[in-house]
User: Which sequence fits this backbone?
DNA sequence: ATTAAATTGTTAATTTATAAACAAAAAGAT
DNA sequence: ATCTTTTTGTTTATAAATTAACAATTTAAT
């Protein structure tokens, strides 16, 4: 099965977030224009995304919330799930760890790594904190697929190399340092300054 | 002067981050293909972005790092700068606050807001923490233009409304709740789960 | 029953974003 | 001096993403 466009994948993730929220509020059906409004998109785009993932709604009634969540899951979730490790459990790492716990059963944070002895060797938020030196063993043993990097910028490069050598498949980098990864590792980078500078630019006349 | 495309604005912000780093390492000139490589873009795209912002390099020598930083500043920075407030000083809010301090002189975090009495009334990272009830006065007095929302999701909506009523022009929302804002307020939303789900999707065959 | 309104699904058109192509200029080599 | 190489700047072409258009279907109203 061929991969969907990156933009569609992003939106499907966003839709699911909203759909889960709708389900928790007891909503059974949702129209494309409702979903669109939540995410500041057009109804056509929502329907097109849904078409691309091969899901169908009911005319005049909309999309069955529960079924659509499952359909998105069949696209985004990997069969038995993927395991995630976070490296650098400072403010940002902890925020991410907290944010993830319990939210996506198929994306499990199974290990966290740091160098600070006040953090290593104990559990934080129910996840064991290992020393970074043990990345090779732990990544192998716990079958970790994806890594999130939230270390101080000067350690970003070596952290990425450590993860890649340990056999990780994808990296989400929050440090301010752009990384280089081999072709078979998928890399995503995010910088809050860029987001805020964009807001700053467009928020003025 | 008309606005540049959003994608170009994002990339200019990314370029500047790297250029500042290059300058600190004493680099005087940079080629388009060098800048491109850092950000996993093509050299053509870099040159096109530079053209769009009306800057010029020197043939065979590349772009003067210092001058290009200034040129990007003339696009991204507002004359006397813009003031920023962060609402919700938990793990994420603190990470953002720390990350910003000292990085962009034209984007100043001048106030932070919370409800927790252990945080309000004192300084965190050199910035005074106010109670959220004082948002109207403080936004007015400190001339705050942009707001970052990092409160628990159930308070996201009321926080946004508070900021908008106080006269804010742009919002960066990190909560899991999609917001609605009037036309004259620019809104940007970011969700780490979406980023990680994208990584997870493309990191497998 | 018939008609009107609302909504999905899909194709076609448009717009936006990226990449290719190449002229012009500068630096260095012969 | 002349030629070759490298790199910028800009135009043209291609590709991707979004929007518009509309047929098909369902529900509800008359
Ligand atoms: N991209 C963004 O939007 C954004 C926002 C905020 C912070 N940041 C960046 O994220 C990173 C973390 O920010 P923070 O506020 O959590 O910082 P922090 O100082 O609170 O946390 C850093 C953590 O990394 C640990 N650490 C240090 N060296 C390490 C190593 N070699 N291996 C593993 N762990 C190590 C420290 O012990 C600490 O726990 C920084 O690079 C910061 O610049 C990025
Ligand atoms: N978008 C993302 O990628 C992402 C990542 C992590 C966390 N989050 C979200 O960001 C938010 C903050 O996360 P966190 O880990 O920092 O949580 P946290 O609990 O550490 O911090 C929340 C802070 O908000 C304060 N607060 C509570 N109610 C408030 C109110 N009405 N007004 C102002 N402040 C109030 C609390 O006192 C606390 O200091 C949460 O909504 C979380 O889900 C988003």
Assistant:
């Amino acid at each position: 099965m061929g991969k969907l466009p990156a933009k569609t994948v992003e939106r499907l993730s966003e839709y699911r977030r909203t759909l889960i929220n709708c389900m928790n509020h007891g909503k059974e059906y949702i129209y494309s224009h409702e979903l669109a409004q939540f995410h500041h998109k057009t109804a056509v785009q929502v329907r097109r995304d849904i078409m691309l993932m091969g899901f169908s709604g009911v005319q005049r009634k909309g999309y069955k919330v529960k079924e659509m969540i499952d359909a998105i899951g069949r696209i985004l979730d990997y069969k038995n799930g993927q395991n995630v490790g976070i490296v650098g459990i400072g403010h940002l790492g902890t925020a991410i760890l907290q944010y993830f716990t319990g939210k996506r059963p198929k994306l499990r944070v199974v290990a966290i790594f740091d160098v600070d002895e006040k953090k290593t060797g104990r559990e934080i938020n129910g996840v064991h904190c290992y020393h970074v030196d043990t990345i090779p063993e732990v990544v192998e043993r716990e079958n970790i697929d994806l890594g999130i990097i939230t270390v101080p910028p000067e350690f970003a490069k070596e952290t990425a190399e450590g993860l890649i050598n340990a056999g990780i498949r994808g990296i989400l980098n929050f440090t301010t340092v752009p990384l280089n990864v081999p072709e078979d590792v998928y890399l995503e980078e995010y910088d809050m300054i860029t987001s805020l500078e964009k807001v700053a630019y467009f928020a003025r006349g």
Remarks:
- Residues 82-193 of chain A form a domain with the Rossmann fold fold (CATH 3.40.50.720).
